[in-house]
Design a protein that fits this description.
alpha/beta, about 25% strand, single chain
Amino acid sequence: MTSNPTPDGTARSAAADATHSTDSTAPSSPVVIEVEGLHKTFGDLHVLKDCDLTVRSGEVAVLVGPSGSGKSTLLRCINQLEEATAGTIRIEGVTQGYAEQSLPDGRLQKLSAQQIAAQRARIGMVFQRFHLFPHMTALQNVMEAPVQVLRISKAESEARARTLLERVGLADRADHYPSELSGGQQQRVAIARALAMEPELMLFDEPTSALDPELVAEVLAVLKDLAADGMTMVVVSHEMGFAREVADQVAFMDEGRIIERGTPEQLIDHPRSERLQGFLASVL
């Protein structure tokens, strides 16, 4: 991935740069996620267009916007579940998906699948759907990846898993199978499973969208606890109350672009663009 040129050969516009200048994060914290000039195309469909995003250690960034605006694709590119068409993604200063040194002809050298998997292991991701193993208990679901990927002992993994299930309020459900859990409980198991890998940051792709309204609060409470503990997070969500309460920065996406970015007060209480004003009117 390279910063220039963009897929259509155009340079970054002054308007785009001005849009991205609303970042209000504290300069004292080290940068964890740095996205620069990101583009993603699927054939003729241009899904991400010149996206920039900076998230510092301990911050919560919430991505909001209409369906199809590119929020989930941006997360999937950060986690290398999708390969960006152009642009650069760095996690703690390390370029994702490519070697730091270019080839003799100037092209960047793509990492192997194993190397990409190693980079991805540092990032926890929770999806809309829970993707739990139906034949495993909650405890076994949380234990599985540390044993298989990190090669830690089953005893150590079990101790870690029980601690995490207690952290998400499910210590008494450790021996229950997914079919015996509510949607909110399954999503909390999924969060514990991601945390079991001891990630450096967490990505959440609309973690409450598949839940009944009465179950949303219990999952958001876990996210609030993680934020209070200083976990660096990027959350795709339509829960504007959560964004207002927890986010350090909110980014509004529309048609593949980050239109506005700033504090919750700036974006939710004082939106600048007509497009964001219209979006907020439809969701608040």
